[in-house]
């Protein structure tokens, strides 16, 4: 009888401990953040020497972690023969919460090369899901 009582006690403790763990019905976060690029607009033409801002909205179903943006020359205007480029390479910036709106300070194009540029925005969440959005714009005379 003593062995049976010890067995029942051990079984009760095991059942009690297993029911205290995380629920197996709780789904893990597999949803990527959503990125909306508001500025520059699609195929916007910006005059060389002008300033402009980048405006992005990033949302997630749970919790955001980081974001960054990069700007790179995609196609050089034909009249430029050198290999100079104008690039803005961002570093990952920490975020918190499930929604984020950012407008950068004015970026100057005074030293930029005429051509088509690609803006790439990357964001990740605390579960490690990564999203990327791109936008093309031009620098013109």
Radius of gyration (CA) equals: 26 Å
Low-confidence stretches: none
What percent of residues are in strands?
A: 35-45%
Number of helices: 1
State the major sheet.
6 strands, mixed
Overall pLDDT metric: 79
Number of strands: 11
Give the helix proportion (percent range): 10-25%
| Distance between the first and last residues' Cα | 94 Å
Quickly give the structural class.
mainly beta
Element-level helix/strand string? HEEEEEEEEEEE
The general outline is: elongated
Describe the structure.
Helices cover 13% and strands 44% of the residues. With 141 residues, the chain is mainly beta. Strands 2, 5, 6, 7, 10 and 11 form a 6-stranded mixed beta sheet that branches. Strands 1-4-8 form a 3-stranded antiparallel beta sheet, with no helix packed on it. Strand 10 (115-125) and strand 11 form a beta hairpin.
Describe the structure using short key phrases.
mainly beta, six-stranded mixed sheet, three-stranded antiparallel sheet, 11 strands, 13% helix
């Amino acid at each position: 009888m003593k062995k049976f009582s010890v067995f029942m006690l051990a079984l009760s403790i095991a059942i009690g401990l297993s029911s205290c763990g995380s629920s197996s019905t709780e789904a893990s976060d597999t949803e990527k953040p959503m990125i909306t690029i508001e500025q520059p607009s699609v195929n916007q033409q910006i005059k060389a020497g002008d300033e402009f801002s980048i405006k992005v909205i990033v949302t997630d179903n749970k919790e955001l972690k980081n974001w960054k943006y990069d700007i790179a020359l995609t196609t050089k205007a034909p009249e430029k023969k050198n290999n100079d480029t104008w690039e803005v390479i961002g570093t990952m910036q920490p975020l918190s919460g499930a929604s984020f709106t950012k407008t950068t300070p004015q970026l100057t194009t005074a030293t930029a090369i005429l051509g088509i540029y690609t803006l790439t925005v990357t964001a990740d969440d605390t579960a490690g899901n990564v999203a990327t959005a791109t936008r093309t714009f031009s620098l013109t005379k």
